Amino acid sequence: MEKFSTPFSRRRLCFAIAMGLAVPLCSHAEVPGENPAAAPDQAQANAKSKTSDTTDLGTVIVTANKREERLQDVPMAVSVLSETTLDRQSANSFADYATQMPGLNTISSGQGWTQLVLRGITSGSHQPNATVGTYIDDAPYGSSTIYAAGSMLTPDIDPNDIEHIEVLRGPQGTLYGSNTLGGLVKFVTTAPDTTQASGRLGFETNSVTSGGDGYNAHATFNVPLVENKLALRVNAYTRTDPGYIDNVNTGEKEVNEAKVRGGRAQLLWTPTEKTSVRFSALAQNLSSDGLANGGIDIDPNTMKPVYGWDKQYRASSTGMFKVKYRLYDLSIKSDFDWATLYSTTSYGTLRMNETLDMTSLFGPLLNGIFGIENGGYAEVQPISLNKVTQEFRLQSPENQPWAWRAGVFFTRESTVDEQHITSFDASTGAPIALPTLGNVSLGPAIFKEYAGYADLTWHATDKLSILVGARYSSDQTTYTQSNDGLLIGNATFTTRSSDHPVTFLLNPSYKFSDDLMAYVRIASGFRPGGANVGVPPGLGAPLTFDPDKLVNYEAGLKALMLDHRMEVELSAFYIDWSKVQLTTTAGGISFLSNGGKAVSQGLEASWRYNAARGLTLWANATYNDAKLAQDNPPGSVYGLDGDPLPYVPKWNANIGADYNFPMGSWSGFFGGNFSYIGRRAAEFNTEPSPRFYLPSYNNINIYAGANVGNWTIKLYAKNLANKRGITSVWPETQSSIASPFNATVQTPRTIGISASVDF
Fold first, then answer.
1. CA-CA distance, 260 to 280, in Å (whole number)?
2. pLDDT digits (tens, 9 = 90+) for 335-387
3. Cβ distance 386 to 349 under 8 Å?
4. Which 3 state secondary structure label does DSSP give 641?
5. Quick one: which of 59, 107, 276, 469 could link to 174 by a disulfide (CB 3.0–4.6 Å)?
6. Could you report the per-residue pLDDT of 10-54, keeping only the tens digit for each?
7. Is the distance from CB of 511 to CB of 558 less than 8 angstroms?
8. Which contiguous run of DSSP H or E holds residue 572?
9. Which residues contact 700 (CB under 8 A, 6 or more apart)?
10. What is the C-alpha to C-alpha distance for residues 61 and 63, in angstroms, rounded to an integer?
């Protein structure tokens, strides 16, 4: 039997643009005369959705390269989703909008528990640390290590506090550091306005087919405290995501209902025209009584439900999931004319606790040993993370023949992950007194990283530019574990590790004109190595694992046409991934080791067109062939040369439209999108056997609304056709091939109505 000290997944005990401007854009940096579908947030009260005398797509400014640049000029694949788009689609989580971004996929086990995958770089839902980085403005979010579920815990920020979301495809290791092998997702929030007061109030209610009802209330206020010098912006929200899964064992209804509460406060001080100081504090709480137990039960051979598309069988008093995020950051910018100095300081905390039903795993053995007829077993797992980061960056103006940048970065993470096995009556939840089954304290795990980076851009001509860059990191980990109990024995030990990864970037680009650019990008990325979990000295298994690394080779083309009414972007990539971090088992204990190679190659295309005044059309498609390039080593998960990487569809596509029109003194809008997610291989098996595959599925979202004075009223439908797309699966027993499996299914048809007022 596998012991339960491995941290490799939430279910670890079970088996040890192309810029993609897929939707109408908005940005506070867009120029006058923009498409009304992309109206800035400050102008929503009177301009949101109103028609315009131009069908120009407008100019979008992004910070993907840590410089403010026109999106058309960024020599890499960047996708953008605007606040207006998120608001119109009532998009509150990655599940609502990920399919609209080329190259971005998700492995979701429910609200707040979603792995992001870019360009197919994943080893499955069991990988413990992320391959996609997440930033909020200039502050990194979440854990960089294997000790705090960094690959699965993702933020769902209130859209009303977001200016836009940038998705950078391809490794960003030189500029953004570790855990960006596939790319980066960056939430760019709306800054306080020091010139005028404003606010917004909104309320939304919705209902899920065969499920419950939900609501969403939010408020945003901006107050200049000192005109042109000091301003405060506050955003707060509360949301209930309706449940739609029933527990046939206990009779409980809608057990996966989730409550989300949060807010963010920002203070902006601009003492001079060349200096700004911005402080922000973010809080988000998510809680559910049944979310930790996942979705429904299915037969993996048929991909059909065992009890029904909205049913699961779980022991009583299990499934609780609570997570609290806090993030504080201080950003300082000072312009010296010859260069600009940036300082970003952040401090973040995570407190997570869940109770996961383990009866299917432990019940068949332990009930017989102890002579119990209906014994239930659960893993209670609290995780605590504290993380501090500091970055200093000095960079020259961009408009000179040689543009340069240099920076230093430091982070320190302290994590404690505890796991306790409890016993109880599976029907009633009443405790059953048994000998201590298992208690594990994983940590404290202390991770430190010191890094320095620099890049240089040579503007050889007004058309040709060449960017080169490199980053050196020094990573250190100290990890302590103690455990006791019948299932795992008694042990206490400390392990240390250190690594010194180097990343690089070569990025030439050529502008045939201001509206046509081609580029080549060769970039590398890495994930930190570290001290292995659950491997005491003397076991014979490796005490540490190494970083895994990849190199991305990419060529792309960006074009604006038809007087800036049409935008097209194409990119082709080939990724060589080496020393892939994989789950391995020895002596009944699961841990991380380094496997062989994998490759990911593909094409990304996106198109956006303002066909007429107020009418925007868009489409994007991705082809991604991600697979092993050699057999996985003995003892690790079973995979052979040529086997596909988990959960990576070969084809993704999205098409949509948004139309804005006048209605006398009012204005109206309607639109929607259709997305397609292709067939995907499930997890690697832990034993030689055929892989399971998840069927393809599609999704239709629509919305319609009106602007009446300062009010906006909207109706919407998500998953209009009520499709049952499976987003992830994992076995509930020791075997990775035996039925049943636990499957997360996309939320059924959701109908909602919202109203908001700007003032």
1. 20
2. 999 999 999 999 999 999 999 999 988 998 899 999 998 999 999 999 999 99
3. yes
4. coil
5. 469
6. 333 232 223 333 333 333 333 333 333 333 333 333 334 333 445
7. no
8. strand 566-578
9. 672, 673, 674, 717, 719, 720, 721
10. 7
